[in-house]
Every structure is written in structure tokens, then in C-alpha cells.
Amino acid sequence: MSNEPSWDDIFSSQPGAAPRQPQGAAPLTRREMREAEERAATKPGKKRSLYETGSGGAPPKKKRRLGWLWALLTVLVVAGAGAFTAWTLFEPQIREVLGWQLPTDYEGTGNGTEVEVVIKSGDFGLDIAKTLSAAGVTMTTDAFYQLLLPMDPQPNFLPGTYTLQKEMSAQAAFDALQNPDNRVVSHVLIKEGVKLTSTLQALADGTGIDIAEFETAAADLASFGIPAEAPSLEGYLFPATYTFDPGLSAHDILAQMVARCFQSLDAQGVAVDDRHRVLTLAALIQKEGGSKEDFYKVSRVFLNRIDIGMLLQSDATVSYGSGGTSISTTAAERADASNPYNTYVHPGLPVGPIGAPGDDAIDAALHPVDGPWLYFVLINGETGETTFSETLAQHNAAVKVWQAWLRDHPDFDN
Predict the structure, then answer these.
(1) Domain that holds residue 174
(2) What are the backbone dihedrals phi and psi of residue 351, each rounded to the nearest 5 degrees, phi first?
(3) H or E element: which one contains 162?
(4) Structurally, how many domains does the chain consist of?
(5) By CB distance 3.0 to 4.6 Å, which of 13, 195, 331, 368 could disulfide with 299?
(6) Helix H segments across 42-188?
């Protein structure tokens, strides 16, 4: 039996040991080495190849590549984290150095989404710029503020609520604020002579505030600074066309109208202590006078009667006190002493105004024309023609003319 080792013995050496050739044997060819390796791999427990790492074997190329990839990935992650941190901390400076400035202004007139912006009294350019930016109208505060800075003279902004759009350019926002059509307001017309109940309803309709809120506010007489003898706000809500900003309370609106009334009285030189008397007489003139020209004669008639202690005998006051809707009254109503507005039984002016007098009626109360008249009566409901008389006989004749006119116009509502 030969003592030379077999090829199998060559590949059964210690794990990790390099294969050895028998002494004197010819070198193995590559094919022989491959075949020997395959035979060794088929033996139980022999899974290592000639090139497996162990004692000095070279690592597989695939594993070497993966190592480089992991190293490269680690470098990229670390670099990316550093770049993110630097960007977060120093974005403005980096953008400035690289010239990557972000836009500060939108383009165009908006994206169609409406938004209400409130300009308060006393707001300056920077205040308005901040308001616009916060509302999403302009992109930044600077966009609008920088637009204003070079303007000479500086523009004026009317306080109020404006309907603008989101994402407007600073110039478009500026133009919109200068356009009064974009201001959100309620317009309410109060006509001369209307009563308090009608005035409150008109305010509710025009502002959208519930009528009950106006009624509650109107009952708080002391808060409006009107004379203590006034039984209500009647006559103190000046007739005019009003513009009310959104957000005003019912009380705010009424206070504004009372202030307007006081403004008119002050302008005509009415003393504070004489306000109630003047408004009461002016309201009576407003209701009974057929035209502006007649106001001054009607004023004279009432003052002549007061001067001689004669009852005013105004159907308009009786009707107001009894809740009527016209100036016509019945004999029973004219005899009702419980009605404080009944000037057929109570001497002098009624306890308060019976409507809202305008400037002309107030002026007539203060400046009646000279004349001896004690009576007047409307004789034409369409034209407002009125006859003034000195005696009762003259007056009765004029009353018949009026009654005839009424018969010819049965649909007339006075």
C-alpha cells in the first residue's frame, strides 16, 4: 500500500490551512484543483472553498464592494445632516450668498377667495401692512410697506371694513383699499317725519341686526344723554342717510344718530336746556306742514296759540298718542284726557316729539315768520296746499274745501 497521500487527504487538512502537494508530485493544474475542490465540497462538513477567508485567504470581491458602499452612504448621510442643520440655522444668509432670494410679493389681483380686512382709526402704513399679510392678502408685510415708503404725499386710508382677495399683489391691495366700492357698509335712509317704530324697523332691515336689539337699546334712555323729560328716543334719531360699518351694535348705531341730532341742534344755536322743546315743536311742524315754505307759517300758528293760552288742537298729536297711523281722529279720541299727546285737552306742546324733524323744521321752530294766523288746514292732499286763517269763520270755510277734496279722492290716505 502506497504511503503517498491521496488528493482527498490533501483537502482534509485543518480548516483554514492551505492545501499541500505531496513531495515530488507534479504541480496541480487549475482543472485538477477545481475538481479536487468539488470533491471536497461533497464531503460532510466540508463547505469551505479554497478561496474562503480563514488563515490568510483573500475576501470575496462582492463583500469588499458592499463595504465601500456602506462607507459612502455613511459619508453622504453625515454630510446631508450637516447641510440640513446649516440650512435650518442660516437659511437667510445662505440664500443671500447664493442669490436664491424667495419672492416677497404675489402677482395679480388675487385668487378669487374673498376676505374682509378691517382698517382701524389711527392705523399707519406698517399697521395696515401687517393686517394685510396676516389676512393672507399680501405675501409679506414688507411687500406692502415697501410700496408705501416712497409715496409722496403719503396716502390716506379711510377706516372701515374692506372686501379684498387673498394672494393679491401689494399694488393690487393698495388700489383696492383706495376704492370706496370695496368698503363694506350698510346704508340706511331715515326720512323726515317718520316715527320711532318705523325708524327702528328701517335700521333692522338695513343692518341685519334684529329689531329686538334696537328696541332694547332704545329703552335705555339715560345712556344717550337725552333730556330727562323725554319720554322716549322719538325725535332724537335724526333723519338722514347713514353709513354704518359692520360690527356696530344696535346701541352704537342709535348713539350715532342721537349725536347727529345734537350736532344739528348745536349748529342752529339751540341751548342744551332747550333741546326738548325745540324738537317737540319741530316734529309737530314737520308732521303738520304741507311744504317747506309752509313750515314757518305753521310754526307761527302754534306759537301764537301758545302765547294766548289757546289749545293747539292738533289731530296729529292725538293720533300719535292713540297709536293711529294717520292724522285723522275721532271725537272720542279727541276727548281722551288719558292721552298725554292729546292737545285738544292738554295745553301747550305735547310731552314729546311725534316724529323725526329735519333741519328745515328745526329752523322753522326757531325762526317763524310774522303773522296773525291762529288756524290752518290742508285743502289739497296731492299738492300740500294749505290755507291759513285768522278767524274761526275763515277756518271753517277752508275746512269745507278740504272735506270736498276728500270726497273727490276717497282713496287718499292722510
Answers:
(1) 114-184
(2) -70, -15
(3) strand 160-165
(4) 2
(5) 368
(6) 61-98, 125-134, 141-148, 170-178
Domain boundary pick from 184, 213, 232 = 184
341: left (phi over 0), alpha (psi -120 to 50) or beta: alpha
Percent with pLDDT over 70 in the chain? 75
Task: Say if CB 166 and CB 113 are below 8 A apart.
Answer: yes
User: pLDDT (tens digit, 9 = 90+) per residue, 13-39?
Assistant: 444 444 555 555 556 666 666 666 666
Burial category of 243 from C-beta neighbours within 10 Å (exposed 0-12, middle 13-18, buried 19 and up): exposed
Residue 172, domain member (yes or no)? yes
Closest to 345 (Cα-Cα) out of 309, 376, 312: 312
In-domain check, residue 358: no
Q: pLDDT for 304-354, tens place per residue?
A: 999 999 999 999 999 999 998 777 789 999 999 999 999 999 999 999 999
Q: What is the pLDDT of residues 157-184, one digit of tens each?
A: 988 899 999 999 999 999 999 999 999 8
Helix (H) or strand (E) holding 320: helix 315-321
Q: Has residue 105 been placed in a domain?
A: no
Q: Which of 25, 58, 91 is the last residue in one of the domains?
A: 58
CA 222 to mean position of chain CA atoms: 30
In-domain check, residue 100: no
- In the predicted model, what is the mean pLDDT of the chain? 85
